[in-house]
Specification:
By secondary structure, this protein is an alpha+beta fold. It is built from 62 helices and 43 strands. Strands 1, 2, 3, 4, 5 and 6 form a 6-stranded antiparallel beta sheet that branches. Strands 12, 13, 14, 16, 17 and 19 form a 6-stranded antiparallel beta sheet that branches. Helix 20 (704-722) packs parallel to helix 23.
């Protein structure tokens, strides 16, 4: 049975548990679990990081830990009983763990590794803490280290700042908000700027001296030297080096390492140096030979200098190599370092090129104790301390020091009868009172132990030596009296013996008889002569002699006379001895009572360091004098006491304050002194008002704290001694004293008056007195004193400085011990509040006000949370809160508003202070509001005298709350503070909303207050810090446990308030729609449930008011878009995407409500519209994410743009998205599409002078100017996109405008621009784009693509394979469909993405231009590929029974025509398919198309050959060979068998005309071939003659097989004219043949068309290879009976394909089975797939497309391709990829670009065909090259990748039958353009623009029927093509749809002749055929 656990509540998982049992909970090692129940070795509970999933797990897997349980029961929380630092560490490391892995994923390697090290370090420290073996100090250090690391990691990862006290996290509920703010601020500041250390130390470690010429021992002396004052700052550090230059005692580190201690910040400057002197120990001369002399001398060696400032910049751990300069002239030795500092080092040589002293130098910061902790190794290993000369900046009490420093300066000696100067050496001894030498009391410096004597340097032959050597004499204090120092002078001989001969001595006593020590300074000592062997042991004898020339008696001339003198400088640094006689006189006052007055007067002149040395003795002296002679010396003693007290205020001596405190507590014995002190103090206070000079009185008041301390202590001692006598008298004295003080404080003075300054001085020291008074008086009494004293200050104070001081006094009062007591607080609070209120109202001294308020409110919270809160305290706290609220709440709100609206001051320091004040006031406000209870709110609201006051208050507090919510209010990582703020805000708002309901509803309704309330609520809910979804699970859990979801609370409050509004709701419609919509965007289901019904309410009320809710709709739509553009859809709201779409959906209550309403339909319509907009907006947001491809972005923007225009009619939004789309196109270099896009905006504008406001990037300008700018931009983009024809139309329109304004300058430019565009059309080459049909199926596609099909214009050079790959890259999850059939519903509804792609052929609208003769192909190419609405796609299939002998009998073509919603190109590269039309082409019609196209191709090639446009004849040869060979081997015969047999004619009587037409075409082909062979014979080279002969022979065979002996009369009678060698005039030679009923009821038109799927040849029955565009199969039967498979390039077959099958390449040598091997081989070459053809898309073909034959396959693959004369291929379309049969794309051939006039023999004419039964068809003009719009993909004829010739002449298109034999194809490819059941001819892709042909004949147009206008199309308003359409009706103003035009679009018209008239075409036209003159279309004005 499961039992709830009592104590087993919390544990850690020891081993992972898979949870495979029923209800098992999987656990991972290290997880923490909370246990709810137990049962026989099992626990039930949950993992703390995922509390929602509960389960069971074995108890043996859990290590239990003790824990506290809060809220026992269902919602209990468990807190482990462990050190809070451990808890924090554990949770933080868990959070970091997840983020750390993400760093790796994001490739942030540096932070990844650093964090890894820190995490390991924290784990190690955690173990140390958990083991519990650390000492208290070490534990503190470890915790400090841990928290520092945690804070670093949190900062690096962007986590929250943790408020801490003593390393533990602080619970914000346990402390006041003000205290929390202080903690946060302190941690924030700590993070920003660590406080600079005031004390510094220099660590020196001597490594070695590197020099080549060593060999003697060295002594190295370091000291710190002040270059500015030219004096040493420290004593010397002394190191001995051996002969190798290494330290003599390497094992004793303290002898080579030292710490120069107590350097002040002022010492770290550039002119403070480390100076090193090096002395050698050895012979007199450095180069002397070794002799027998063993005497060694100390001789100068060298000097080095380095600035301390250099160490601040250098890496502290670097070793420094100091350059050592040798001293050349020993007389300068004493100043060598000064010269080096002055850079006068040229006079010294470096003692060697590689000489240097290797030293480690490091600056350390902080006090010495801190260093001992941080650098423990340093101190344990050993380091000597080198002190400063004199005391440090701060003298510490208890510091013991007694050092005498003596510097041997210089000497003056006589020669002593010698010819050369002496070598003088001084020996120094210290002797005690008995004349004994003091052992070890002479030190050359720190580092080496002291010795008994010191030997100076010896300067060679120098009678005026200057040594400048400093020695230290650390003599104990008790030995000072009677001791003296003796200096012995010896001459050092350089002779062999090396003797040192004594010749004199000097001495100096250390203490004078009166007890004063040797004064500091330079002393000139007398040198007493003596003999060499004189014994100086008898000290008393020479001590009687004078020692210094300064104290010689004036009559003693004998000793003054000698010139020999010796100078020393002494400096005493002692904490016990003094050189000051006045000090000694004062201390010995009893010995000389008469000098007391004098001594007291001189006390002020004595140096402070002397006084603090003897502080206790001096104070005893003063109070002793006071006790004995108070009347006489009372005032003097008081003044001396004041002087000493004020001396301790100095920073140098401030550490002696505790010494004085200790003295007062423990040593002070003046029990009677209080009377005198009170009396004198009162005497001074009474004199203040009248005194002229206030300085001394101010000094007295400065010392008042300690004076009161003495008074109180004295009184306590008296009470103890007398049992409390004279108590009343004392109280009276104190009261009188305070009366005097109050009187002088109450004086009103100007700020400059001395009295005002004295008042300020007193106020500064007054708070320090409270603590002393409390020792005798009760709390209430002291509080009374303070209240009356502060209350006595004048209210109207003029002195600003006094105001500030007054506030400082209040601050200290509030922070004092007195104020902490609740009893005194209620007395002092009114005074404090009064002062605060006055200051805050005037906005003065806000920093101090904030500090006071912070302290006050911190105390209240403490009281409330204190453990000893008694019942009596609660009312007191409540009363205080009431007082503060009454006095300060209003002014506090005003202050925050005032500060927030102020412009921020300049300067970082000022800004910081400004921020602090705001933050502190905010914290105070929050603390105050948090303390307020129901009662306080009631009193507050009742206190308002009028509704206006209450209204102002509410507006004020709501505004302040809005300020508090601002992101910049607190630092980014202050989440704790933000949550506390929000908690306080929501609590307060709940209280205030009652006031709002009671006071401002119904007739008292106030819109402004309610609006402010709603606005606050909305921004409260939308705060980033409340969006819990964006937080980690642990953080979210903590927030929910502590505060709940505050957004839901506020949402409920909004709903409740909204319901109360009643009819006043109308005031907030539509204003609040946007804000409320923003709230519903928050991904919180409960919040949405609450908020969404408000929309129903809004709709209902709006419906009642105006009968519709258009306003609601408009506002909703505007707000939705702006919310998206504000980035509401980014990471924070990512989860929201799925839930926002059914915004109204999942809440049936809303829809149900709407359905019950009378306005149900419009309501549901609104919801549908908004939902659709959301879908598009969210798609847009998705697509606009980084990394998305441009195609998606553009498609999505187009969808949204159209939605705004067509469905919502939001013009401004529409224009915004036009520009977004333009930017996308421009960035993607889709210049044509960019132009069309910008044209949308251009067409909205008129040529008017209406002023337009500044909008987007447009300045304020007139509508005319903006339209002009747009026109120019569009023209520029059309130019870039090579769409020059469209640019010309706009140029004309601009030119008209310039002309109408007589702006001829711009008009000229415009005409020149127009001309340049015409030039570009003729001169520059244009690439022909491919078009692809793409189907997007499945629910996973974005809304704007889902289950739709589009036609896309490919990029330059982009073929099908590349396009397919691009689409798959854009949609990486899409599945490519393997067939071209329309998908079924399962695909539509699938939860996936399916892509179906194949190529389609454009059907040009502009047939007239394309068919017109004389128009260059450069011009035609534009009309072939622009303004295309319709596209065609053919699929071959067999209908009925398939004849295996001849598949052509049953081979039909299914032709699909796709009509788009807008023409391409347009504002996008792709548009949706609007309509699909399916027609079927019969086998007979197909055959006619194929032969027509082949004939056309032959004619073109013959013409080109005649006009010598071909550099070589190979293309013609191959084409002739292909046609004749195929015909001979059964090509045309297959058609004869299929259609000319009796059975067919009998079964299809309606096809009679068509059969006749086919027969004519076959005869015509033979006729053309005969003519072609004649031309061929003329031009064929000699080596090709055999082939030509073979062709002629085969042609005769072909004629006989066709049964042609003579050509029919009608063929002969109508010769085929190639006027001027051009086939363009032969228009009428191709009449209509296909009747409307010829295609099984499908209207049909006959014209040379390209069938997408032609078989490449006809072959005989026995042919093994039937090739079509997709490959070759054993029989055409198998070819067409199969499903096209996208996976291969061939049609799928149930038979094996021929080994020669290749993808879509036609065979060039298809023939009968008897075909020669070489031909078979060449045919195989020709069938190579596109990827095998290296030149297919590389070499552009310069041939004129206008001259192009229809896409036939020409020539023979056996012909070589290496002939340099072959023309380069046109841009060739490769065969499509293997996606589907239907996607195969063929290209069109192109021919030479110029025509020569050439006469040729006439070809028999081809009469017009008149037997057609087509009634609805207009007669077709003769076929010209331009009528075959398809482009060919040409198989290579030779495997030469370098040649670029014949590809252009060989077609893959079905027009050209597969082999080059008969031109009959089993699959014909027709370009059908439909109009009202009529198929119009289709143009095809244009070749590259070429130079215009020479002389072109005018074409004859036989077009008789008017083309039928398409009524069912709506071209876009931005179609530039429409601009020159004369028949287009004037568009409606706001229509986006313009009916398309099927009239043949003319060439761009010439400029206007008249402004009002229509444009006319200039130039001449053929008189026989009048050319149409279309009028230009004006840009439609939308």
């Amino acid at each position: 049975m499961w039992i709830p656990t009592e104590h087993e509540k919390y544990g850690v998982v020891l081993a992972s548990f898979r949870g495979t049992v029923q209800h098992g909970l999987p656990l991972e090692i290290g997880d923490t679990v909370q246990i709810l129940e137990k049962c026989e070795g099992w626990y039930r509970g949950f993992i703390l990081k995922n509390p929602n999933i509960k389960g069971i797990f074995p108890s043996s897997y859990i290590h239990l830990k003790s824990a506290h349980v809060k809220n026992k029961g269902q919602f209990e929380t468990v807190i482990p009983v462990e050190d809070s630092v451990i808890t924090e560490m554990t949770s933080t490391l868990r959070d970091w763990g997840a983020m750390w892995k993400q760093l790796y994923v994001k490739n942030e390697g540096d932070l990844f590794h650093r964090l890894w090290h820190v995490m390991n370090e924290i784990l190690d420290l955690r173990r140390q803490v958990l083991v519990g073996h650390l000492t208290h100090d070490r534990m503190r250090d470890v915790k400090q280290h841990i928290t520092a690391r945690l804070d670093w990691g949190n900062e690096q990862l962007g986590l929250d700042l943790v408020p801490r006290r003593e390393f533990s996290m602080v619970d914000p509920d346990e402390i006041s908000v003000t205290e929390l703010y202080r903690l946060m601020e302190h941690r924030h500041r700590k993070k920003e700027t660590p406080a600079p250390a005031s004390t510094h130390h220099l660590f020196v470690h001597v490594k070695s001296l590197m020099s080549a010429n060593l060999g003697e021992e060295l002594e190295v002396f370091f000291h710190i030297y002040d270059g500015r004052e030219n004096r040493p700052l420290s004593e010397r550090f002394f190191v001995k080096l051996n002969k190798s230059g290494l330290p003599k005692s390497p094992e004793k580190t303290e002898r080579q390492c030292t710490l120069f201690v107590d350097l002040g910040s002022s010492d770290l400057r550039k002119d403070v140096y480390i100076v090193v002197h090096i002395v050698r120990i050895g012979r007199m001369g450095a180069g002397e030979k070794k002799n027998l002399c063993s005497v060694q001398y100390r001789r100068p060696f060298g000097c080095a200098v380095v600035s301390i400032a250099d160490l601040l910049t250098a890496d502290s751990k670097d070793d420094h190599l100091l350059k050592v300069y040798a001293c050349n002239t020993e007389s300068e030795w004493h100043q060598i370092h000064e010269n080096l500092i002055k850079k006068a080092n040229s006079r010294y040589n470096l003692s060697g090129s590689n000489t240097g002293l290797a030293v480690a130098l490091q600056l350390l910061h902080g006090d010495i104790e801190q260093l001992r902790r941080e650098y423990m190794v340093l101190f344990t290993r050993g380091v000597s301390i080198t002190r400063k000369l004199g005391f440090s900046d701060v003298i510490m009490p208890g510091e013991m020091r007694n050092d005498l420093y003596i510097t041997l300066e210089k000497g003056e000696f006589e020669k002593g009868g010698k010819s050369v100067a002496r070598n003088v050496e001084i020996t120094v001894y210290v002797l005690d009172i008995d004349g004994q030498i003091l052992k070890s009391h002479v030190a050359a410096g720190a580092g080496e132990p002291g010795s008994d004597e010191y030997h100076s340097l010896v300067l060679y032959h120098n009678n005026s030596p200057r040594w400048a050597e400093q020695i230290k004499l650390p003599i104990p204090v008790d030995m000072f009296r009677g001791s003296h120092v003796r200096f012995e002078f010896r001459h050092c001989s350089t002779k062999d013996k090396g003797e040192k001969k004594l010749f004199g001595y000097s001495f100096v006593p250390l203490m004078q008889e009166d007890g004063r020590t040797l004064p500091d300074g330079t002393h000139e000592l007398i040198i007493h002569k003596c003999e060499e062997n004189t014994s100086l042991a008898d000290c008393p004898r020479y001590l009687k002699m004078p020692f210094s020339k300064a104290n010689l008696p004036s009559n003693n001339q004998t000793l003054k006379g000698p010139k020999e003198s010796f100078w020393i400088t002494s400096f005493l640094c002692s904490t016990k001895l003094t050189q000051n006689g006045d000090m000694l006189d004062l201390l010995k006052w009893r010995a000389h009572p008469e000098r007391i007055n004098d001594s007291l007067s001189k006390l002020k002149e004595i140096d402070g360091s002397e006084i603090v040395k003897f502080l206790q003795d001096t104070l005893d002296t003063l109070f002793g004098i006071l006790d004995e002679s108070s009347q006489r010396y009372g005032l003097k003693v008081f003044d001396s006491l004041v002087h000493i007290i004020n001396l301790l205020q100095d920073s140098k001596f401030q550490h002696f304050k505790p010494v004085m405190d200790t003295y007062i507590e423990s040593h002070f014995a003046g029990a009677l002194s209080y009377r005198d002190l009170i009396k004198v103090l009162k005497w001074y206070v009474d004199r203040i008002v009248d005194a002229e000079h206030q300085d001394h009185i101010q000094q007295v008041l400065k010392a008042s704290e300690y004076i009161f301390k003495y008074i109180i202590q004295s009184r306590r001692l008296f009470s103890l001694a007398t049992g409390g006598q004279n108590e009343e008298e004392f109280r009276v004295c104190i009261h009188e004293l305070f009366m005097s003080i109050r009187f002088f404080l109450s004086q009103e003075n100007k700020s400059t008056s001395p009295v005002a300054q004295t008042q300020a001085v007193f106020l500064r020291t007054f708070p320090a007195v409270y603590g002393e008074l409390l020792k005798i008086f009760t709390v209430r009494e002291v509080a009374g004193f303070v209240r009356e004293t502060l209350g006595s200050l004048p209210t109207a104070v003029h002195a600003d400085c006094l105001e500030a001081v007054k506030l400082q006094c209040i601050t200290k009062t509030v922070e004092s011990q007195l104020y902490i007591n609740p009893e005194s607080r209620c007395i002092l609070l009114p005074v404090v509040l009064r002062v605060l209120q006055a200051h805050m109202q005037e906005q003065k001294d806000l920093v101090m006000c904030a500090r006071i308020l912070t302290s006050m409110l911190s105390l209240i919270k403490k009281e409330e949370n204190g453990t000893a809160v008694s019942v009596t305290v609660e009312p007191v706290v409540s009363e205080e809160v009431e007082l503060i609220v009454e006095s300060l709440l209003g002014v506090l709100l005003r202050t925050i508003l005032e500060i927030s609206n102020r412009p921020q001051p300049a300067g970082p320091a000022m800004r910081l202070q400004f921020q602090d004040v705001t933050g502190e006031f905010v914290a105070c406000l929050l603390a105050l509001l948090r303390q307020m209870s129901d009662r306080h709110y009631q009193q507050l609201l009742q206190a308002f005298s009028s509704k206006d006051n209450l209204r102002d208050f509410l507006l004020q507090i709501f505004t302040v709350f809005r300020i508090l919510i601002r992101p910049e209010m607190f630092s980014k990582d202050w989440t704790v503070m933000r949550l506390v703020t929000n908690n306080v805000i929501i609590t307060t708002v709940l209280y205030l909303s009652d006031a709002l309901r009671k006071n401002f509803l119904n007739d008292k309704f106030d819109y402004k207050v309610w609006d402010s309330y709603f606005y606050l609520s909305v921004i409260f809910i939308n705060q980033p810090c409340l969006q819990l979804e964006s937080f980690s699970p642990s953080k979210r859990k903590k927030i929910l446990e502590k505060y709940g979801d505050m957004r839901v609370m506020m949402g409920c409050e909004i709903f409740s308030m909204w319901q109360n509004l009643g009819e006043h709701k109308l005031n907030f419609i539509p204003a609040m729609i946007g804000p409320f919509l923003e709230v519903t965007l928050v991904p919180q289901p409960d919040l949405r449930n609450v908020m969404i019904p408000i929309f129903h309410d809004m709709m209902d009320w709006e419906q009642r008011r105006s009968g519709n809710f258009k306003q609601v709709e408009a506002k909703l739509i505007d707000k939705l878009d702006s919310l998206m553009s504000e980035g509401k859809g980014d990471e924070t709201y990512r989860e929201l995407f799925n839930s926002i779409i059914p915004l109204f959906g999942p809440y049936p209550s809303l829809l149900k409500k709407i359905e019950r309403e009378t306005w149900r339909e419009s309501g549901i319509s609104l919801i549908a519209t908004v939902t659709r907009l959301m879908e598009r907006l969210l798609d847009y947001r998705d697509c606009m994410k980084l990394g998305e491809v441009d195609g998606k972005k553009i498609g999505c923007t187009v969808s949204l743009l159209n939605f705004y225009k067509t469905e919502l009619n939001k013009e401004e939004m529409y224009i915004r998205y036009i520009h977004k789309l333009y930017d996308l196109h421009f960035k993607a270099q889709n210049y044509t599409e960019a132009s069309y896009t910008l044209l949308l905006y251009d067409e909205l504008l008129e040529w008017s002078e209406r002023p337009l406001r500044e909008f987007l990037n447009y300045p304020m300008q007139s509508e005319w100017q903006r339209k002009e700018y747009l026109h120019l931009t569009i023209v520029q983009n059309f130019d870039r996109g090579k769409c020059w024809e469209n640019g010309i139309i706009l140029c004309r329109e601009l030119a008209d405008q310039y002309e109408s304004y007589y702006d001829y300058r711009n008009l000229s430019k415009m005409r020149m621009m127009e001309a340049s565009l015409y030039d570009k059309i003729m001169d520059q080459q244009r690439l022909e784009p491919e078009f692809f049909r793409v189907g997007f199926y499945g629910k996973k596609f974005p809304f704007f693509l889902r289950n739709k099909e589009f036609v896309c214009r490919g990029h330059d050079y982009e073929r099908l394979e590349a396009f397919q790959q691009r689409m798959l890259n854009e949609f990486p999850h899409a599945i490519a469909m393997q067939h071209v059939n329309q998908p079924d519903q399962t695909i539509y509804q699938a939860d996936a993405q399916y892509l179906q792609i194949y190529a389609v052929t454009p059907i040009p609208e502009s047939q007239d231009v394309l068919q017109r003769d004389g128009v260059p192909d450069n011009i035609k190419s534009f009309y072939k590929f622009n303004h295309i609405w319709r596209f065609r796609y053919d699929r071959p299939f067999h209908k009925g029974t398939k004849d295996k002998e001849n598949e052509f009998k049953s081979l039909w073509v299914e032709r699909t025509t796709l009509t788009l919603v807008q023409s391409l190109p347009g504002i996008s590269r792709w548009f949706e398919v609007d309509k699909r039309e399916l027609v079927e082409v019969s086998p007979l019609e197909n055959a006619i198309e194929v032969i027509e196209n082949k004939n056309l191709q032959l004619r073109t090639l013959i013409t080109q050959c005649q006009s010598r446009q071909m550099q070589n004849i190979n293309p013609l040869t191959m084409c002739l060979n292909g046609v004749i060979d195929a015909a001979v081997n059964g090509g045309l015969a297959r058609y004869q068998e299929a259609f000319f047999v009796k059975d067919y004619i009998m079964n299809h009587p309606e096809d009679g005309d068509k059969i006749g037409r086919l027969r004519e075409l076959m005869f015509e082909q033979a006729h053309i071939l005969e003519y072609g062979l004649a031309v061929h014979e003329k031009f064929v080279p000699q080596d090709m003659r055999p082939l030509h002969k073979k062709l002629v022979d085969q042609f005769h065979l072909m004629k006989s097989s066709l049964g042609i002996q003579e050509f029919p009369a009608y063929v002969r009678a109508s010769p085929v004219h190639f006027t001027n060698g051009s086939p363009r005039t032969c228009r009428n030679s191709v009449p209509n043949i296909i009747s409307p009923d010829g295609g099984r009821g499908v209207a049909r038109r006959s014209y040379p068309a390209v069938n997408r799927y032609s078989s490449s040849s006809l072959s005989s029955q026995a042919s093994n290879e039937v090739s079509n565009i997709t490959g070759q199969s054993e029989s055409s039967d198998e070819v067409f009976n199969m499903q096209p498979s996208p996976s291969t390039s061939s049609l799928s077959s149930n038979h094996s394909a021929s080994p020669n099958v290749t993808s879509s390449a036609p065979s060039s040598a298809r023939g009968s089975p008897q075909m020669a091997e070489k031909h078979k081989h060449s045919r195989e070459n020709a069938c190579l797939s596109p990827r095998d053809r290296p030149v297919s898309a590389i070499f552009p073909n310069p041939m004129d497309p206008a001259q192009r034959a229809p896409p036939h396959q020409i020539g023979d693959a056996t012909l070589p391709r290496s002939d340099p004369n072959l023309s380069a291929p046109d841009k060739v379309r490769p065969t499509p990829s293997s996606w589907s049969l239907d996607s195969v794309k063929e290209g069109a051939p192109s021919f030479s670009d110029s025509f020569g006039k050439m006469l040729c023999p006439p070809v028999p004419p081809r009469p017009p065909y008149s037997g057609s039964s087509a009634k609805n068809m207009r007669s077709q003009s003769p076929v010209s090259a331009s009528r075959s719009p398809q482009k060919t993909t040409v198989p290579p004829f030779t495997p030469s990748p370098t040649e670029c010739q014949s590809t252009s002449l060989v077609s893959n298109s079905p027009v050209l039958s597969g082999s080059y034999s008969s031109g009959i194809s089993s699959l014909s490819r027709c370009s059908v353009s439909e109009a009202s059941g009529t198929e119009l001819p289709a143009g095809d892709h244009a070749s590259h623009p070429l130079p215009p042909p020479g002389t072109l004949p005018n074409s004859v147009s036989s077009s008789s029927d008017e083309p039928i206008r398409r009524e069912n199309k709506t071209p876009p308003p931005y179609s530039v093509y429409e601009r020159n359409n004369p028949r287009r009706p004037v568009p409606l103003p706001h229509s986006l749809s313009i009916p398309p035009q099927t009239d043949p679009p003319a060439l761009p018209p010439k400029p206007h002749q008249l402004r009002t008239g229509s444009m006319k075409l200039d130039g001449t036209s053929d008189p026989r055929v009048p050319r149409p003159r279309p009028l230009p279309r004006k840009v439609s004005q939308l």
